[in-house]
Amino acid sequence: MFILISGIAAGERQGGIICKKGNILKHSNVMLAGLSALLLAACSPNTPETAPARPVPSDEPAGPADVMPAGPFAAAFPAWYEPAEPFRVIGNIYHVGPKGLGIFFIPTEDGHILIDGGLPENADGVLNSIRALGHDPRDVKYLLNTHAHFDHSGGLARLKAATGATLISSEGDRSALEGGFYLGFEDRPEFNAPPVKVDATLGDRGTVGVGGTVLTALLTPGHTRGCTSWRLTVEEAGTPYEVLIFCSASVAANRLAPDPQYDGIVADYESTFERARGWQPDVFLANHPEFSGLWQKRAAQLDGDALAFVDRDAFPAYMSKMEQGFRAQLVKQTGEE
Ligand SMILES: [Zn+2]
Fold first, then answer.
1. Residue 280 Cα, ligand 1 centroid: separation in angstroms?
2. The CATH number of 89-334 is which of 1.10.3720.10, 3.30.2350.20, 3.60.15.10, 3.40.250.10?
3. pLDDT tens for residues 58-91?
4. Which residues surround ligand 1, an ion (CB under 5 A)?
5. How far is the centre of ligand 1, averaged over its atoms, from the C-alpha of 152 (Å)?
6. What tens digit of pLDDT does each residue of 322-335 get?
7. Which of 293, 312, 317, 106 is nearest to 212 (CA)?
8. CA atoms of 93 and 145, how far apart (whole Å)
9. Distance in Å, CA 306 to ligand 1 centroid
10. Phi, psi for 328 (deg, rounded to 5)
11. 91: left (phi > 0), else alpha (psi -120 to 50), else beta?
12. Helices within 164-208 (DSSP H only)
């Protein structure tokens, strides 16, 4: 039996504004149109120009009777709700998210770890994927999050209720998770996520482990104040591989200046770029599949390349693009060269 959590601080509830607990499913089409435009501009390089038809839910067994229908974000970004077959990435890491959001499941014989929750309406699909892999969602011991944005934290409340898992986050993202808001957009209820109680927080290099699998939290703030990347080593055919599940370093909808999304955001991005400069994980995974070429690699894996996800150039290439994007946004938002 191997269960470990280290570096966890009980953490006092963070100050910060707890805004009203809105639900992203409740807002007008007019708001949605504006929001879609913002997200199209900011978030998703592969998103079509026009909002496509509402996605059709899977024919797979639905599981719980109250499967949540697609909400406005899933309607605007169909891939975020498009079901995908769960599959093993490498070692004991599985992808259990929809086509357009990276959600990772790490089963062990002593309990399981789940990283990210997607949108609220992704939770049922994630639970079904875990079942399809032959596991019981109630054996998920730890629920982790890369960052407190609705497309990665929205499903956590539902997943926590279904699994009974312990939710661990960074201190920096705790208030947004518990308050159900998007830090810096407290006045934008369409960006809210269902509030979820954080059971423990981890500091930088804190670890969480079960059944011989140990994940190390690497704080990479900027995209959010508590943006957390997770590093672990897995074994494939007797060889160890270092895997990095990276939070994000995109500017997306963030305000850098003036009136920053949160105090210190620019310095945080800078420190994250600096810190990650030497990182060259064997396997790079991300919560948006297009960041790491997840589906291209999956296709190569299906074609017989057992090590399709081993790609030591992928993370440095991604970060260099993110840094360029950040510098361009900084110039644009501050008006300074
Ligand atoms: Zn985000």
1. 22
2. 3.60.15.10
3. 444 434 446 688 888 888 999 999 999 999 999 9
4. 149
5. 7
6. 999 999 999 999 98
7. 106
8. 15
9. 30
10. -65, -40
11. left
12. 171-179
